[in-house]
Amino acid sequence: MSKRTLAFLVFIAFFLIYYIGSFSKISFGDCIGFVLDVENREFLTIATPLAHFLYINTAVVFTKFLNFDSVSVMRLMSVIPAAITVSALFYLIKEFIEENWIAVTSVFVFGLGFTFWRSAETVEVYTFNALWVILFFIYSIKSLKSNSQKYIVAAGILLSISFWVHIQNIMLIPAYLVFLYLLKSERKSIILSFISFIFIFSLMFYTNHLNNIELKYVFTSKSGPWVENTFKQSFSDLVKDVAKSLLYLIYNFNLFIVFAISGMIYLFKNYKKSFLFLFIASCFTLGFATFYAVSDNYVFLFRFI
After folding, report:
1. What is the pTM of this model?
2. Closest to 270 measured CA to CA, from 144, 91, 139, 109
3. For residue 291, what pLDDT band results from cuts at 50, 70 and 90?
4. Around 188, how many Cα atoms within 13 Å sit in the side-chain half-sphere?
5. Which residue, 92, 200, 281, 295, is most buried by CB atoms nearer than 10 A?
6. Which pLDDT band, with edges at 50, 70 and 90, does 305 fall under?
7. What gap in Å lies between CA 52 and CA 132, rounded to an integer?
């Protein structure tokens, strides 16, 4: 069976799983705020950490111009990106292995893990964000394997666009810089990629400038003590954070963690450039997810898992 056919079947399977198990009522918390923003049918014009510019405005397009129900739109804004992300993960794994059964098994372990499954079945930005991150990974890996200019440029564009979904993706900048270094022989391509990245990223600051918002609010929020609390943690708190993150991983994947470790060893032995890129991306993201002082920081483990 071809890779495209398998990827499509994976998408269909997870779309049905997530859609059938999806919410019947809007839960409390951020979910209500997201749905209300979309129900108002007004585009966001600011790019702040809590605005999720691209996520909300994409949903507004469907409600404002296509007259879709806001609850249904927000439901599908979680379910469809989640299913596509799992299917895209299949493509990413196939960049390294030939065996279809290993790739299919791996995406089912990921897609049915508590963290991703939970976010796919409620109103949240995380699966929509995961889609942009996995696309960035795919094009980066393709670039490292083929040195293709279009893939190199696409990687920079996708990463910068992802900031408009969730600003925490800046944790992937170190991996992007390593990516550019590994491809330094492709000077024209990396310059085009970096310029595209900087241009799209800088538009966030310009957008806020037009709305008389201080430039720092691209990265930080006027409300919420999360960043301050993160830096105020004691050593014992940091140890607890590490233990909690390990428990999250165990809870999500159980014995399959052993296979994940063997997979990392396989990458290191056979695809050293790709391993270095993915390792740097994972380290910064895992560090952020581990120590960020919010009650639901496990959702940030997406990009490490």
Report:
1. 0.90
2. 144
3. low
4. 3
5. 281
6. very low
7. 13
